[in-house]
UniProtKB/TrEMBL annotation:
Gene3D superfamilies: Immunoglobulins. This is Izumo protein immunoglobulin domain-containing protein. PANTHER family: IZUMO SPERM-EGG FUSION PROTEIN 1. Residues 169-256 form the Izumo protein immunoglobulin domain.
Amino acid sequence: MEPQRLSLLVAALAGCLLPARGCVICDPKVVEELSSLETDYLPGHLEAKHHKDVMKRVKQAVKDFQDLPIDEDSYMGVVDEATLEKASWSLLKDLKRITDSDVKGELFVDELFWTLRLAKDTFASYAAQFQKEVFCPNKCGLMLQPLIWCSTCQKQVHSCRKSRSCGERKVKVHQMEDMILDCELNWHKVSQGLTDYSFYRVWKNNSETLMAKGQEPTLTKTMVSPKDAGTYRCELGTVQSTPATIIHFHVTVLPKRIVEETPSPNTETQDETAPGEVTLDRPQTSATLQSQSPGPEKVLRHRLVGLLIGAIVVLIAGVAWSPHRTPPPRSSCRFPLPFPVPHPVLGAGAEAEAEQEQRGQEPSRARGARGPGCCRDPKQGKSLGSQGPDPSSFRPRCGSPSQPPGAPFLSPTQPPPPSDLGGLVPLHPHL
C-alpha cells in the first residue's frame, strides 16, 4: 500500500471514533431541505405524534451514508467537492419528488425511507468513481489535492506523493528553428500549493544555469544552434520543500533543413543589374505561388466566356452569309401541264419551238407558262390559250380559300396579265 493511502486509511479509521455525520449531510443545502421537510411537509401529511420519531430515523439514515466498507479502490472516507455536489443533488431531487407527489401517512413514510436507501447506493457509486479516477491522479511528483473528510465535514489538503522524478524526454530540433520545452502535466491545474516553473541548463560537470522562471510552463529558444544541444531540467515548485514535478530534457540539434529554392522568373531585375553583380531573388513561398496560380473557378469562368464568344461569332457569320433576297413566292398549283414548260432561266429548247411552229404559232420567247386552270376565262369557260387539251379535264389545286372559283392566280409581286398574250403568261414581270 502506498504511503499516502496508508495515512488516509489511518485518518478514516480515526474518524469512525468521532460522531458520524455522513458526507451528504456536509452540504448545507441538504440540511436546509431536511429542516423544511420537518416544519413544512410533515404537519399536513403525518400525525403529530410520529413527527419526532420519523425525523430521528431520517437523520440517522443520512448519516449512515458514510457507513461504507473502507477500501482503497472504492471508499476511503473522503471525497472531493464535485463528488459531494453530485450526491447531494441526487438526494435533493428525490426528496422534491416525494413532496411534489403530496403522499400522506404510512405510504409517505415507506416512500421516504426507500428513497434514502437508493440515495445511499448512489453515493457509494459516486465515491467509488472518485476513488478510481479523481483521487491522487498524479503518476509522479507531488500533488496537493483538496479533499472533504466525511466524518468531520472538514476540507483539508491531502499530499499525493509519487516518485520524485517524472522521467526524461528526448527533443530533436533542426538548426535555425525554435526549441520548445513543455513542462506542464494534466494534473497541474487541479493541484494546490504550486509556485513557479524553473528551467535549468545542465552542463557536463552537473552544474546548472537558470534560464527562465515564472508561471509559464514552457521554455522557448529561437533559432537554435549546435551549441544549444544538451540536457535541460524543469522543476515546478510548491509551498512545501518538495518540488511538485521534475522533468529532464535531452535536446539534439539536427542539421539545417534543406529547402529547394525555385529561381525567380523576374528577368527585368537581372537585366538592370550592373556587370559583375549578382542579384539573389527571394524564393517564392507557397502562399505566393497559390496566389499567382488561378483557381479552378477562374479557369472554368474563362472557358465559359470563351465558348460564349465563339458561339456569338459563329451566329453572326451565319447571318452575314445568308442570302439577302428572298425567293419569289411559288404558285400553289400542283397539277401536270398539257404542254412542256420551258425552263424559266435556260429558255425553251428546240423541241418546244418546233412544237409551237407545228401548231401555227410564232415561237414565243416567254419563259414559262401558267397552268390552264389558273388562267381560265370565266366567261368562255376555257383557257385563254387556244392550244392544248380541254382544260376542263384538269382539276387545279391552287389558290387560297379567299379566291373565287375560276379566278386567275395572281402572285402578290405580279401585275395582272393582259387580255391577249397568245395563250402564254409570263412567269415573272422581268422576263
